[in-house]
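RECORD TYPE: inverse folding
INPUT: structure tokens
STRUCTURE:
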């Protein structure tokens, strides 16, 4: 079993760090207000600024919280099922910060795979993808790939009937064991 595990929004709550930064320079936004993937359009934020600011947040990786407690234990459980690779879409310049964050949180994984654009993940050879992006999830389905959607405010429009959804990573362990 080959498992592709996303970082931003699944393991690392980087949006909380970005909100702290953004709210210091713009009108306040809360996480529940981020109800779609390209939310910056609603708030008149330039996408290039948004992604540059996310990269800036990763440079201060120690301040990025985990999405939930016990990720170390849960990723070890996933590793007992099969090969777990971190599969992330990001600027290459942030890879070392992400790896430091993963090490700091004692996240179990076999390989670190970084792609330029999220939907490119669907072209990779994995048995199951755990991701929070609704765009990636749709591309996984289009490519006949199994996906488990990690619930976030920006992916609520995806129906549970369409894609299996989890609210915490330990639920993924149960779902993958049943595949």
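DESIGNED SEQUENCE:
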């Amino acid at each position: 079993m080959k498992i592709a595990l996303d970082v931003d929004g699944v393991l690392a709550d980087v949006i909380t760090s970005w909100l702290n930064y953004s709210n210091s320079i713009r009108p306040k936004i809360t996480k529940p207000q981020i109800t779609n993937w390209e939310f910056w359009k609603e708030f008149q934020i330039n996408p290039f600024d948004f992604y540059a600011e996310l990269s800036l947040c990763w440079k201060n990786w120690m301040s990025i919280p985990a999405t939930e407690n016990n990720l170390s234990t849960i990723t070890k459980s996933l590793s007992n099922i099969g090969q777990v690779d971190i599969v992330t879409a990001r600027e290459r310049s942030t890879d070392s910060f992400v790896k430091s964050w993963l090490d700091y949180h004692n996240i179990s994984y076999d390989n670190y795979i970084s792609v330029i654009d999220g939907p490119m993940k669907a072209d990779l050879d994995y048995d199951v993808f755990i991701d929070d992006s609704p765009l990636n999830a749709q591309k996984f389905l289009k490519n006949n790939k199994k996906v488990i959607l990690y619930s976030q405010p920006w992916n609520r429009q995806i129906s549970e009937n369409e894609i299996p959804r989890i609210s915490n990573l330990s639920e993924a362990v149960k779902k993958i064991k049943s595949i």
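NOTES: Residues 14-63 form one domain.
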